[in-house]
Structure formats: C-alpha cells, structure tokens
Known about the structure:
Layout: E1 6-9, E2 18-24, E3 27-32, E4 38-42, E5 46-48, H1 56-89, E6 97-99, E7 103-107, H2 110-122, E8 127-131, H3 137-148, E9 152-156, H4 179-192, E10 200-203, H5 210-216, E11 220-221, H6 233-243, H7 252-257, E12 267-268, E13 276-278
Amino acid sequence: MKQGDLVVRNSYGGDVLFRIAAITHRTAVLKGTDYRLLADAPVDDLAQVADPERVGATQQVRIKASASVLRMERQRREAERQEERPEQAAGQSQGYFELPGKVLHLDGDGIYMRKSMQLYGQMRVPAHGVHIHESQMPEVLHRLLPQLRPDIVVITGHDGVLKHQPQMDLKSLASYKNSQHFVDAVRVARDYEKTRDGLIVVAGACQSHFEALLHAGANFASSPGRILIHALDPVYIAIKASYTPIREAMNLPEVINGTISGIDGVGGIETLGRYRVGLPKRALQTQLPG
C-alpha cells in the first residue's frame, strides 16, 4: 500500500472509507473521504478498495449528500420565486439585486476545502477559502476578519476524541485533537464582532467539543453526540445562513435536520440570516459589501 490509496479498516468492519495520507513504520495516517476524520491504523489492518462506490457505508452517505445538495438547490429556487413576488406586486420593472451573506471558510483539510469552495460556487455564495492548519486558525482569523469583513465564518478541519488518554474526560478540551484550536478561533471571531447576529460562526469537525464551542460564541457547532460529521455539513449551514433573509430567524429544525449528520452531528442556537435584496438592479455595477 502507498500514499493516496483508498482503504477501509478491517477492525472497524470497513465502516468508513479513507485515503492514506502517509505511512510511517507500518502505521498509516488516514483521512476520511466523506467524513472529517483523521485517524491512524496499522497497515496490516487495512484493506485496499478498488471501487469506493461498492463500500456500503460510502454509498449511503453519498446518497444523503446528494439529497442534501438537491434540497439546497430546490430551496434556493423557491427563495428566488418569493423575491420576485413583491417586485411584481409593486410594478417594478428594473428588478431586485441580491446580496447573499459573504463567507470566510477556514479548513484544516485541502481536499475538503476544494469541495467546499465548489459547493459555494454552485450555490452562488460569495466565499473566501483558506486552507490552514487548525493550530494557526486563531492568528489567521485575527488578520483576515477586518480585511474581508465576512457575514459568516466557518472554522473546521479535523478533530476527534483522543483514544489513548489515560483518563478520557469528554468535558475536558484536552481530550480532543483540535477542539481547543477551534475554541480559540471562535473567541477571536467573537472579539471581532460581539453579537451572534452580526457575525455568524459555524465551528467544529468530527467529535468536536460542542458545548465549549457554543460557550466560546459559535452559533452552530459540532458534535452534540460526539459522532463523525460529513465534510459538507458546515458548508450546508453556512449556505443556509447566507440565503436566509436578515429579517428572519433560521429555522433550527430545518437547518439541523437538513445536514447529513443530523442532530447528533450538529447543533446551534436561534440566529438571524444574512441575505439582503436591493433596488434598482440596473444601478448595481460592482458587488456591494455585505
């Protein structure tokens, strides 16, 4: 086996599809292809996968992911039709222009970063993505927030409960791979903008310390049930925030149940959206700030 191969772990029943990131002394560092999971395993425990679509768990999660994207597209079309109605009723001939909320997305994984940016583009969400190690996210946010002035910040990457701790305490940030870094980054964001409706923060990855992230100031976080979350779950929430009108609160059950991981994967608090419309459309020559 070599770096880049697709594999499953025999000891876990082949439940998650991974790509080998590195091999050192017969131990492989693994990155989930669909889940934000970083793991290691003995090479002898791995089975190479030639056709990932034949892995049962992978099939199921990708079906859910496709359904989630289709749902977002359908909701987006419905929102567009709703915005046309007041224009028609008022006899406007020039049309509205749109200002969806602007996203700053920090990701500890380059592959997931590219997938996320592709989905933002597909949904026409203005987004700036930065691939950066989790430990550097607080410093990068401190520099970028005043430059980019986003409406929504996504802080994600890899995380997980450390299995080899002598005494594992799920209440302690020391029991998590990167939750402390995510918490520090959330605090930087909240120091920049105190109100949770002024800047929406989506934070966490697989098995992250949900309660600590919320207490630090996140609007949405993972993972209440300390489970694996899908790579695109934070993106889905950011897109919903970007296209929910500023006069409306995001529908929490709809948002959370619309994610691939569900209520054990993601939770959050009542939050106003960041989408605006304006008039007249013909006067808009350049994109306005959010």
